[in-house]
TrEMBL record:
Keywords: Cell membrane, Membrane, Transmembrane, Transmembrane helix. The chain crosses the membrane at residues 24-44, 50-71, 109-129, 149-169. GO terms for cellular component: plasma membrane. This is Ni/Fe-hydrogenase, b-type cytochrome subunit. Residues 21-182 form the Cytochrome b561 bacterial/Ni-hydrogenase domain. Gene3D superfamilies: Transmembrane di-heme cytochromes, Chain C. One of its GO terms (biological process) is respiratory electron transport chain. It holds the Pfam family Ni_hydr_CYTB.
Length: 188
């Protein structure tokens, strides 16, 4: 075994090259959103102050991520991963047949999931805020919509995690680690 620069060569094999994909803002947003959503969902009506603070934090995170989706680096931009429904469905068909192409950034299904989660979370935040206003204080309809959107988000999170696990398996790549390190394998 030889050490060459920052790589270790064992038996003539070089470790796979990696590329920077997820910038620090995307990674911090992702894991902060995970933590604050868990806090908001777990506290619900039980610890209202914490629930409201987590909700406002989520709203702030969403605002930052939406702006970053237009001005951030390549893989953070919506234009890089938001695809037409036809492409998303074709990609999901390819996933089911275990022949989906690998993407360095988000795949079409991942892009659709991001949009769905952003919309569901924005709606959850909006209805949560509405319940604090005089116009909607005590509104059962707004409360039910708020709870529906929060539960829908949980379902989307479950689908997201399953998608990440399937893609990790199919492409032999740890996508969770890449959302921590910001790096992915460069090429197949």
């Amino acid at each position: 075994m030889r050490i060459m620069g920052n790589t270790i060569e064992a038996g003539g094999a070089m470790p796979p090259a990696t590329v920077k994909v997820w910038d620090p803002l995307v990674r911090i947003f992702h894991w902060s959103l995970v933590a604050t959503f868990v806090i908001a969902y777990a506290t619900g009506d039980e610890i209202e102050r914490v629930h409201v603070a987590a909700g406002y934090t989520i709203a702030g995170l969403l605002a930052i991520r939406i702006v970053w989706g237009f001005i951030g680096p390549r893989h953070a931009r919506f234009s890089n991963f938001v695809r037409p429904p036809r492409e998303v469905l074709a990609y999901l068909r390819d996933v089911a047949m275990l022949r989906a192409p690998r993407y360095i950034g988000h795949n079409p299904a991942g892009g659709a999931m991001i949009v769905a989660m952003l919309v569901a979370l924005a709606g959850t935040c909006a209805t949560g805020y509405m319940m604090t206003t005089d116009a909607y204080w005590g509104s059962k309809l707004i409360e039910h919509v708020h709870e529906f959107l929060a539960n829908l988000t949980v379902g989307l999170v479950v689908a997201h995690v399953l998608g990440v696990l399937i893609a990790s398996f199919e492409h032999r790549e740890n996508l969770i680690a890449s959302m921590i390190s910001g790096r992915k394998r460069a090429a197949d």
